[in-house]
Design brief:
The structure is a homodimer. By secondary structure, chain A is α/β, with parallel strands linked by helices. Chain A has a single domain (8-212), classed as TIM Barrel, CATH 3.20.20.70. Helix content of chain A is 44%, strand content 16%. Chain A is built from nine helices and eight strands. In chain A, strands 1-2-3-4-5-6-7-8 form an eight-stranded parallel barrel, surrounded by eight helices. In chain A, helix 1 links the parallel strand 1 (8-11) and strand 2. Chain A is globular and about 40 Å long. The A-B interface holds A 45-48, 50, 71-75, 77-78, 86, 88-92, 95, 99 and B 45-48, 50, 71-75, 77-78, 86, 88-92, 95, 99. Bound molecules: nickel (II) ion (NI). Residues 173, 176-177 of chain A line the site of nickel (II) ion. Nickel (II) ion (NI) binds at residues 173, 176-177 of chain A. Chains A, B: Pfam families: TMP-TENI (PF02581). Chains A, B: One of its GO terms (molecular function) is thiamine-phosphate diphosphorylase activity. Chains A, B: 4-amino-2-methyl-5-(diphosphooxymethyl)pyrimidine binds at residues 38-42, 70, 109, 138.
Chain lengths: 214, 214
């Protein structure tokens, strides 16, 4: 399960998902080409997180897409998710690797080469590098641009996904000039028409991969 | 480590712990007779919870007192705590037991005999039964009285600690009439003079144990 297709990595955010449950939204995204799903929940109880994760796991299992849980190693273990993604406010990458063992996927966030190298050294399987662009929903995030993402990609030997304000209008440029292995998106996928967002983004990513000769 | 002395089980609450850090407060409580420590944190990041838990674990390890983490199985694994306590909003007892295996302590909350039997069946090592009394800090908690706690104690074959509004003024009555194995307290220990609270409560509990012939 460690060999992952990072082309289009969707991160859930219930604030964008209206009128349907998260599992339904995830299913639309997967049907239209999302290759990895990260379930991200804040400000809910462990029991609620667990129950949502169980439902989402049913969908990802059905389509054989890896499910990554944001932050909560216990929820990942509880639903037998494929992995965990941790950022600066979460458990350190090395601690997560120790708990999960060698077979689960561990991802780390980085906005600098130094952080990315640290996460790689601690056992991360991939890096979420960003923020590429400024995001209205996350004004506190450090913006490193396509250039900052490219430096991270060049520094590490593990896959890198670009994150932060990437959508169908800029995914082509990000892939082409940063050299990353895929795009990670929240609003870019779940804000609005999930089917159209996913298809358009995937087309732009593939167009850039082709241009790069990947 | 499964053989626990549940006599006086302290649950941390930072809102009562002023002018010192949680590890210091826990050390005072342990020095004065607390036999189990539960670290309970809400509304902080996983990283902060982890860092506090590491500090508290240093103290509990020094005095050879078991450390139980409230809710977060991942934090317990990260700091190698002795166990986890889960309530109705947390992961189910059976899931926690499956993740932690047979050697860690798993505690469950119950306000009814039915819930207590369910937790026991799912693999709980002990029950936190209550609320014994109404608590201003937790107005939503179901109050079951000393009688409700006694029914739970009589129904299960695992240790029971009484929780909810128990302090030095009522611990004697609770122990004497409910037959429980110990008292669990938050405010009863950490609100005010921790040393005096702990000593007084322990004296009352022991007086009732003696009266009961335990
Ligand atoms: Ni260009």
């Amino acid at each position: 399960m460690k060999r992952i297709d990072f082309t289009l990595y969707a991160i859930t955010d219930r604030s964008f998902i209206k009128g349907m449950d998260i599992a339904e939204a995830v299913e639309i995204a997967i049907k239209n080409g999302v290759t990895v799903v990260q379930l991200r929940e804040k400000d809910i109880s462990s029991r609620e997180f667990y129950e949502i994760a169980l439902k989402v796991k049913e969908v990802t299992r059905k389509y054989n897409v890896p499910l990554i849980i944001n932050d909560r190693v216990d929820i990942a273990l509880a639903v037998d998710a494929e992995g965990v993604h941790v950022g600066p406010d979460d458990l350190p990458v090395g601690v997560v690797r120790r708990i999960l063992g060698p077979d689960k996927i561990v991802g780390g966030s980085a906005y600098s080469v130094e952080e990315a190298l640290k996460a790689e050294k601690e056992g991360a399987d991939y890096i979420g590098a960003g923020s590429v662009f400024a995001q209205p929903v996350k004004p506190e995030a450090e913006v490193i641009g396509i250039e900052g993402v490219r430096k991270i990609k060049e520094a590490v030997n593990i896959p890198v996904v670009a994150i932060g304000g990437v959508n169908k209008t800029n995914a082509y440029e990000v892939i082409l000039h940063s050299g990353v292995d895929g795009i990670s998106a929240i609003a870019g996928i779940f804000d609005g028409d999930i089917e159209a967002n996913t298809k358009d983004m995937l087309r732009e990513i593939r167009r850039a991969f082709k241009e790069r000769g990947k």
